[in-house]
Amino acid sequence: MMTKVGSRVAILLPLWALASAQSAPYAQPAAPAPSVNPVLPAKTPVRVKLLSALGSKISKIDQHFPIELAEPVTVDGVALLPAGIRGEGEVVHAARARWGGKPGELILAVRFLQCGAVRVPIGRFRYAEAGKSRSGEAMAASLVLTPAVFLVAGGEVNVPAGTLADAQTVADTALPMTAGAPCPAAP
Length: 187
Fold this sequence. Notes:
By secondary structure, the chain is mainly beta. It is 10% helix and 39% strand. It has two helices and 15 strands.
């Protein structure tokens, strides 16, 4: 509806049209959702595979060896770590079998899995094994012939490549988001 007031033309709008025009929402772009990196909780079980052969006779203390995640790690149905990512373990103690029937000893520990640029600390795994003790045979030999005790050696410990072991994550770890996945898949 238009009316002429002096030299001006006024457009009169019904009151309901004015009210609805003012209350119409302005089109605002949606705020981007904050990118939240998933967190892998502490004490999450992981299964790793040892990638090199180790043994009480061939391994040295502080020697590092490669490991690989054998199975994907899922938390609440969401896969956080894909199988195949690599990490590292360490020889904590190694001793050869000795004369007198003393067995070889080997203690291993896993240290971390590499997820992109983030190291996921793992532990609560200790591979400790002793070789076969032959001290009884050495003692029997010494009763017959005293120097023979030095000729009996204990058994060595050998861990072949591909051995599977269970471990746990040590601390809560925020994982990087890469292409919509928490951790890049292993090559």
